[in-house]
Specification:
It contains three helices and two strands. By secondary structure, it is mainly α.
Length: about 90
């Protein structure tokens, strides 16, 4: 491939092909993850809650603490928790 308008065709093609391979791997991994959640559900676990746990485990501890404090505050404001009681 030639260079057109300052773009090296072979280099561009290489990037595109790498992205396409990674996208295919991502689809395969997504299917594998879905299978694991289905297996967990079959064992009696709740996938929705597991997804929340996975999300929380990725977060910084300070971010988790802040999110939990805001959730408690909002619950109290909506009357879902008595004043002074923390969720959990």
């Amino acid at each position: 491939m030639a260079e057109v308008g300052g773009i090296a065709g072979e280099r561009l093609k290489s990037f595109i092909e790498r992205i396409e391979r990674l996208e295919e791997e991502k689809r395969a991994l997504g299917a594998d993850i879905k299978d694991v959640y289905a297996e967990a559900k079959g064992s009696g676990f709740e996938p929705r809650i597991m997804r929340q746990i996975v999300k929380i485990r990725k977060m910084d501890k300070d971010a988790v603490d802040e999110e939990e404090a805001l959730l408690d505050l909002y619950k109290r404001a909506l009357g879902m928790l008595p004043d002074g009681e923390a969720a959990g």
